[in-house]
Specification:
Elements: H1 2-33, H2 35-40, E1 52-56, E2 63-67, E3 70-80, H3 83-96, E4 100-109, E5 112-122, H4 126-136, E6 138-148, H5 150-176, H6 180-212, E7 213-222, H7 236-264, H8 266-303
Parallel strand pairs: 3-7
Antiparallel strand pairs: 1-2, 3-6, 4-5, 5-7
């Protein structure tokens, strides 16, 4: 019984090695049979504009093209003077390009509204979304990035296939096992293998979600006037005119901000006005009482 259990344990240890060797052996054979073809095979482009990997299959009889796995991410800072229309436009654009809102929040502050969105859009519609979002409202800042996870993705995929082959062979061993000790040992190995398969499958699904759908972070701000996007004038006269225009705009903005501040603090304005009126009346009464006294004193001096 001990010898049989030892044999089963050795078989379990060899299962993943045999599975891995089986795949690598086929790949190396295909590579030796046609080294020149692999070296001269051009790199094709995938649907997203990236290169693809050209590798041999386990059987070595056909070529398998592996597309690069790219994660696209962008951050947009937008301004608008028509907040409600812009919010509706972004929602319509996202729906039209088959995307969705992963997160959405809108709040008010300083008399204006702000919105933050996390948009997931299919990778093939990623560039279209960025271009049309920039046309929908005023784009003040943007940042894009790409991350190539091809190596990690296909490594995880290979390990998953190895674990699946291991599971099949363990199940075959379990079907032939007769001793209870052997059955318990194999079932324990099957349970561990199934956990590995679940973990690797979850990792691949996570990668697929990041690759298939690009992520766009949007910050939308409501403003009274859009940021100045005019190019600097070249001539001296143009610079003078631009300076006068900017100065007048700054002056009017200052008056508007003052009016808004007064509107927020109208109670204090009323209190200060009432206090000023009372102070003026008190000063007038005091002055009215002092002047007659001075006149009486002057009259007495004249009589003497």
């Amino acid at each position: 019984m001990k010898r049989k259990a030892l044999a089963i344990l050795l078989a379990l240890m060899l299962v993943p090695a045999l599975a891995a060797c089986g795949g690598s052996k086929g790949e190396s054979t295909a590579a030796n049979d046609a080294p020149t073809a692999q070296m001269e095979a051009p790199m094709a482009e995938n649907a997203y504009g990236g290169e693809v990997y050209d590798t041999a299959s386990a059987a070595g009889t056909e070529s398998v093209h592996r597309a690069e796995k790219m994660i696209h991410t962008a951050t947009l800072s937008l301004e608008t003077t028509v907040f409600d229309d812009t919010v509706a436009g972004l929602s319509s654009l996202t729906e039209r390009l088959e995307g969705y809102y992963e997160n959405s929040s809108i709040w008010s502050g300083g008399g204006y509204r702000h919105a933050d969105y996390t948009v997931r859009v299919p990778a093939e519609n990623y560039k279209t979304f960025l271009a049309q979002a920039g046309e929908l409202c005023h784009l003040t800042d943007s940042d894009t990035s790409q991350q190539n996870i091809s190596e990690a993705y296909y490594d995880t995929e290979g390990r998953l296939k190895t674990q699946q082959i291991k599971l099949e062979r363990l199940q075959a061993l379990l079907a032939r096992a007769e001793e209870m000790e052997d059955i318990i040992t194999i079932e324990s190995a099957i349970s561990e293998t199934e956990q590995q398969i679940d973990s690797l499958s979850g990792t691949l699904q996570h990668y697929d979600g990041l690759v298939d759908y690009a992520t766009v972070y949007i910050s939308l701000q409501e403003v009274y006037k859009l940021s100045n996007v005019e190019e600097a004038p070249v001539s001296f006269a143009g610079r003078i005119g631009s300076a006068f225009t900017a100065g007048w705009a700054s002056f009017t903005d200052g008056l508007e901000n003052l009016a808004v501040a007064l509107a927020y603090g109208w109670m204090w304005v009323i209190l200060l006005a009432v206090a000023a009126v009372i102070a003026v009346r008190v000063l007038r009464k005091r002055r009215g009482g002092i002047v007659p006294k001075l006149k009486k004193q002057d009259d007495k001096k004249d009589e003497t």
